[in-house]
Design a protein that fits this description.
By secondary structure, the chain is an alpha/beta fold. 34% of the residues lie in helices and 14% in strands. It folds into 2 domains: 2-105 and 295-314, NAD(P)-binding Rossmann-like Domain (Rossmann fold), CATH 3.40.50.720; 106-287, NAD(P)-binding Rossmann-like Domain (Rossmann fold, 3-Layer(aba) Sandwich), CATH 3.40.50. Strand 7, helix 9 (186-192) and strand 8 (195-196) form a beta-alpha-beta unit. The longest helix is centred in the last third of the chain and has 19 residues, at 296-314. The protein is globular.
Length: 323
Amino acid sequence: MRIAILDDYQNVSSSIVDWHELAHELNAEVTVFTDYLGEEDEVVCAALQPFEVIVAMRERTPFTRARIERLDRLKLLVSTGRRNSSIDLGAAALRGITVCSTGYLPSDAAEHTWALILAAVRRLDVELFSAARPRPEGAPWQSTLGLGLSGKTLGILGLGTLGARVAAVGKAFGMRVIAYSQNLTKERANEVGVELVSETELYATSDVLSIHLKLSERSRGVVGAKQLSWMKPDAILVNTSRAAIVDTTALLDALDNGLLQAAAVDVFDCEPLPAADRISSTRGLIATPHIGYVTAEQYEIFYTDAAEDIRAWAQGAPIRVMQ
């Protein structure tokens, strides 16, 4: 049996799981890929063709129907986290491929959301400096005015587990917290202790708008030029959910044209982000390289559970099977 561990960018999986022990136990060979395989189907499929088992790190390498149909040796696909919208589960089922998940800590993504919110309102993209890089001669010691959060309005687009966690912190800061999504009920809003509003009111009154929708065909591109035009010019948009929920071109245009003060994002249409991407030169944009889930505690769960999934499947009793 050949096992592939994909997209271990920081080469940490081997410090959590003894792959040599697993390989010996299952009479297998384990290969850890620390580099991204790229976007080309030909390249990805050629690299993964020899493997019966693949462990995918979140959605870094998609497994589309076209790719799954070409990986004729693949028998088990493990995805870190509880769901993965980049895996075609229907195609996997047709091929008899078992797809398993791992545990997941929702707290990490909520915490990173607040790291981005605070970075944006206190303009840390401008004000941070390093002792290793002295200030240029004549550069101002202070150059921006931050935004206090107490008394401001936090808008939550999508009030699931993550949205509720972010809302709780907003209330702790003394913010008015409002929420909207197509299926959000007054009962759910009351349960979380936030105010249910209309779509237009969410955009028009939020000082900070944080996105926490699941990606689906209904939510894809739901934040577009029209919705962004409803926002206040001094508002801040934060997206730690999925890039495809927001029309990226419309967001960058809004920032470039001064229709939005700032945005903070941790997710991108193409990852890793190309070096010359427009995002890197857009005024008022704070970007982190999809690290909302990248913590020691999260990776401990991901890789430990992935090894358990492989062992259970090899014994004929798969666990955490994704439907």
